[in-house]
Each structure stands twice: as C-alpha cells, then as structure tokens.
Amino acid sequence: MVGVFGARRAAVRTRELPAFIVLGPPRTGTTWLNDVLHSRAILPAITKETRFFDVHFDRGLDWYLDHFPANPDKRVVGEIAPTYFASSLACTRIYSVMPHARLVIIFRNPVQRLVSLYRLKRAYGLTPWSLDESIERDPELLASSQYATHLKMWQSLFPAEQLSVNFFEDLIAEPQGFIERICGFAGIARFQLKETERKEVFSTTKMTEPRVYRATRAALAVADWCKARKLDKIVHHVKQSRAFNLLIGGGAPFEAIPRESLLKIQEMLLPETEDLEAMVGRDLSAWKMPPAA
Fold first, then answer.
1. For residue 104, what is the enclosing H or E element?
2. Are 14 and 72 in contact (CB under 8 A)?
3. 95 lies in which domain range?
4. Is the dihedral of CA 65, 66, 69, 71 positive or negative?
5. Are 58 and 120 in contact (CB under 8 A)?
6. With contact defined as beta carbons under 8 Å apart, do 269 and 241 qualify?
7. Sign of CA dihedral 41, 47, 51, 57
8. Looking at residue 115, what is its pLDDT?
9. Helices and strands of the chain, counted as H and E runs
10. Which of 57, 232, 251, 255 has its CA 20 to 30 A from that of 292?
C-alpha cells in the first residue's frame, strides 16, 4: 500500500498533507478544538472526521486530500481525528504517509471519558445496551481508555518531539493556556479566544436517549455511507435541519449509572492510569479517587 501512495504523490503534490493531527481519544474536547481552530488552520471542510487512516485508507490519498479546502493563505494544515488514538492501523499508516507529522494527544479522567463516550453512543443509536453490557460488547470503550498502552504504541514510531501530551482538565481550568500550548506545538499562529469560544465544551449531560433507536441507527448508517462517497454536504444540511433534532435525542433521560459500575471501570483501568502517571510525570491521583455516581 505504501508503494501505491508513493506512485500517487506526484499527482497530489500541489495539495499539502496535514502537518499535525489531533489523535484524541474521543470525548476529550476535540469538537471544541475543531470549532476553535477551524478559522485559524486548514481542517477538513464540512466533515470533522475523515476516518481515512483507520477506516477509508483504501480509498487513497486523492480521496483524503479532497476533504481539505484550498489554502491560499498558506495556513497550517491539520486534522482532528479522535478515533485514531487506539488504532494500530492508523498509527502505522500515518507513519508511512506522514512520518514527520506532529501529533496531539489529550487525556481525560478515564472513567468520566468512558461514560461520556457511552452516552454519546446511546444518543446516536450506536449501542442499545447498559454500560456493563457495552463494556463486554463494544471494544472501543475500553480500548480508547488504555492510555498508557496506546501512548507507547505511538512512541514506538514517532520521536518525543513530535508528540504532545495534554490533559482535558487543563482545558477546563484554563482554555486560553491550553489552546496556546496546542498552537505553539502545531505551528499555528497564537490568538486570543473570543468570549463565545470559551463556552462549555460539548457535553453529553444534556443529551438523552433517541426517540426511536432503529431510526437513529439507520440515519447514522446512511450518513456514514454518504461520507464514504464524499457526499458530506448532504450530511451537513441534514444536521442543520429540523429533521436532525428528530433523529438525535428527544427520548428519555439517561438512567443514572450505578456507582458499582463506575468503581469496576476504575479498577479495570487503574494499571493504565498508574503507567501513564509514571510515563508523563504528572500526578493523576484525582483519577484514582472513588468516582461519584
């Protein structure tokens, strides 16, 4: 596959590959980051996540680069792709195509992040199960929470100076300082956040179950089909319409998650937390405290 891409580079050399990628994992402020950087860097237009390096790699570089708008101002090109973090395929593919890319990783309290991702999947009709059942049936929930394991994976290919480790808690505490660190690392001109950009990071606390699970699940499947065929504008227009509100949420509030389930998750992920603490030299004792229901 690398040889195929090498042969195609002459055809796409007038378009610039990303200089940086925000790897995620999901539910760590990446939607906020996409909104804030959208006018300051060149990011995929319309669609936030191309899923190129983990799902659509066989579609080729032309398909990928078609997602990026023209860049007459020569701004820094990047992608915000939270599903790449836990993907070994994405790791090796990014290295094969962009070995000098600068990579941003954002960590968050693993129990809170897992619950947030689970609720998002419930709202979007991606999982019909309880949290305990989802942990058994949905590998992404735990895999994307294995911070130390996957950080080691990225470190095995990319040198330390190309990896930036950040924490969601710093974004919540001081968004200006957080964005300045990201911009400094990625090569984006520093800027002052507007007051409207300091809004609450997109949260699942106000989301609900879907009105009709099967309808929501079917709508997401159609959206994925459209995105794979570069029909992102159709998906975008639907999201901006009233129909979107009928498909996402609108059902019953999420049920409270039993404290026993949260403690179980924390115990399962404790070795990862302790390994990460040693790797990055940051006190993560707050992540080890018993989670509240």
1. strand 102-107
2. no
3. 2-207+254-283
4. positive
5. no
6. no
7. negative
8. 95
9. 15, 6
10. 251
Q: Is 7 exposed, middle or buried (0-12, 13-18, 19+ CB in 10 A)?
A: exposed
Amino acid at 1: M
- For the segment 134-173, what is each residue's pLDDT rounded down to a tens digit? 999 999 999 999 999 999 999 999 999 999 999 999 999 9
Is residue 216 assigned to a domain? no
Distance of CA 147 to CAs 101, 227, 273, Å?
Answer: 20, 29, 7
Q: Which amino acid is at 109?
A: N
Burial 17-27 (b: 16+ CB within 10 A, else e): bbbbbbbbbbb
Residue whose pair of structure tokens reads 């006190």 in the numeric block: 283
Instruction: Tell me the CATH number at 120.
Output: 3.40.50.300
Phi first, then psi: give them for residue 198, nearest 5 degrees.
-90, 15
**Number of domains the chain is built from:** 1
Question: Percentage of the chain surpassing pLDDT 70?
Answer: 77
Q: How far is CA 36 from the centre of its chain?
A: 15
Residues 6 or more apart in contact with residue 7 via CB below 8 angstroms: none
CA distance 36 to 15: 23
d(CA 44, CA 49): 8
pLDDT tens per residue across span 71-92: 999 999 999 999 999 999 999 9
Task: Decide: 98 and 130 in contact? Cβ < 8 Å.
Answer: no
Q: Is residue 248 part of a domain?
A: no
**Assigned token pair, 216:** 């929501």
